[in-house]
Structure formats: C-alpha cells, structure tokens
Amino acid sequence: MDADHIMHSIMGRTPKILGSEKYSEFAIFVPLIEVDGETHILFEVRSFNMRRQPGEICFPGGKIDRVDRDAEGAALRETSEELGIDRKMISAVQPLDYLVSPFGTIIYPFAGILNVDVKDLDPNKAEVEEIFTSPLRELQMKEPELYNIEFKMEPEKGFPYENIPGGENYNFQARNMKEHFYYYEDKVIWGLTARILHHFIELISDNK
C-alpha cells in the first residue's frame, strides 16, 4: 500500500480521544434556579439505596444511552427524570468543558436554567434522597479547599523492564489530581461535583 493510499484511508475522519471506545460516557447538568428572587444552584443528594456513591452530593446526570441523541440529550433526559420535570422547563443550555477522568470515564457537563419553582420539583426517590439549593453568589465568594491525590505507577508482575531504558529504575511519571471541597451549611460538596462547580464558577466570573 503506497503512502497516498494510506493517507486517503484516514481522510475526513473526526478525531476523538484515543482509546475512548473503552471509556464509559456520562452527561451531567448544572441547574440554575431562582429562589426568592436570587439565582441558586441546585444539588442532589444521592439515595442511600444506590449501589454507587450513596449519600453523596451530585448534579443531575447519568450514563449516556443509545436512545440519547447526544450528550446534551442525555443530560436533559436524566435531569427531567431525576427531578420530575418536563424537558421544556429547562432552557439556555450551554456546554462546559468535558472531563476525562483517571477512572475510565468521560464526563460531559452542561449548565442551564430550570424554569420551575423548587417546591414543584418531584425528585425520583429511587435515585434522589433529597435536593437543596445554594445561592450562586455565596459559592462565588468561597475558595474551595484543595487536597492533592497522587496516583502511583505500579507495573504488573512480569513487566518487561529489560526492554525499556533504565530498566527497573525507569522514571515513571506519576500523576496527581487536586480534589476540591466546598462547604455549604451542613453539606460537603467534593469530588467531581466540586471540580465542575469550580470550573463553572471560574467561567462565569471570567465573563462578568
């Protein structure tokens, strides 16, 4: 196969994240809602009956299914199902930066407005233990606490050190990640939710 034929075979393809077919893809939604004339962010507390991360604070969202037209469609579907509202009550949806986690997932966050009163929400009790809101202004005034997490490189038994420069003394580049923590009243917002919250706050603060 000549070089021209080789390059023609990959012409016009849309690049994606290398290896992404092995990742699980999730979409989440950062909901803005008006409470007593002030803009709040709405959070969920995951049901204590959930298999994964019971009782943790999160945004509405979940895994992207084949029925979803795209990541935004998945975020809106999950939000409407979890909060018991019609999709028509969600407006001004905008994408945030997506995140490739070190745990085999790609997260597509979106933000938008819930055009509904908090008291009219009907959370799905199978997934949502409770909901609460925090004034956006208050969250903007807080600096999150940051804690470093290091991921150690531990090659499996039988790793062929003899085939790489430096052998067993090879300088593997360990990765680290900053965990964000926000505190609001008796609630602790941390992990992925806090990272996306921080990203959103930075975005809107930069565009004042």
UniProtKB/TrEMBL annotation:
CDD domains: NUDIX_CoAse_Nudt7. It holds the Pfam family NUDIX. PROSITE patterns: NUDIX. GO terms for molecular function: 8-oxo-7,8-dihydrodeoxyguanosine triphosphate pyrophosphatase activity. The keyword Lyase does not apply. Keywords: Hydrolase, Magnesium, Manganese, Metal-binding. Its cofactor is Mg(2+); Mn(2+). It comes from the Bacteria. Its EC number is 3.6.1.55. Residues 23-159 form the Nudix hydrolase domain. PANTHER family: MITOCHONDRIAL COENZYME A DIPHOSPHATASE NUDT8, NUDIX HYDROLASE. This is NUDIX hydrolase.
